[in-house]
Specification:
This protein is mainly alpha-helical. It is 70% helix and 0% strand.
Length: 169
């Protein structure tokens, strides 16, 4: 879902090759999968403790492990020789910085927005949360108004089932 949102945002922002944002969104949490495999009991505890809130999970990972799933993914992607803008955006997908490159802002915003949607949450019964100040700053920095965002989210929701079915066969 994050990939579909990121691609939609990149298209709305007239970014060159917006499909690369689908890839970034698709891969952004690979570090979480790696950690969930390598240190499963720890990650299970952190996931439960965070209540499915990704920002809290990110903080707990740093406190418990000394690094985050975003850093694990970025290190893997750098080793694999993936493009540096993708690596940097994945590394920073839980950190908003107004001075960040546009790629980072788009992936941050797509991930945070996905987390507010039922299709993007880690827990089905997680309480809905209000957009964070960083999320609102990110939307403002991308110059996406409410109408554009509504269209992007609606299109991503429509494409989600089709996309998942095409990936999983």
């Amino acid at each position: 879902f994050t990939g579909l949102l990121a691609k939609g945002m990149a298209s709305a922002c007239d970014v060159l090759h917006p499909e690369r944002f689908f890839v970034a969104g698709l891969l952004h949490d690979v570090g979480f999968l790696v950690l969930s495999h390598r240190v499963a009991p720890i990650m299970q505890n952190l996931l439960v403790t965070s209540g499915g809130d990704e920002a809290t999970l990110h903080m707990l990972e740093r406190e418990t492990l000394g690094f985050t799933h975003a850093e694990v993914a970025a290190r893997m992607f750098r080793t694999w020789g993936l493009p540096e803008p993708l690596v940097a955006a994945v590394a920073a997908h839980h950190t908003y910085d107004s001075a960040s490159p546009l790629d980072n802002k788009i992936l941050f915003f797509a991930d945070a927005l996905a987390g507010l949607n039922d299709l993007g949450t880690l827990f089905e019964d997680r309480e809905a949360s209000a957009p964070s100040p960083q999320l609102l700053q990110s939307a403002e920095a991308l110059r996406l108004d409410e109408t554009a965002l509504d269209h992007i989210v609606q299109q991503a929701q429509e494409d989600f089932v089709t996309t998942v079915n095409s990936i999983t066969g």
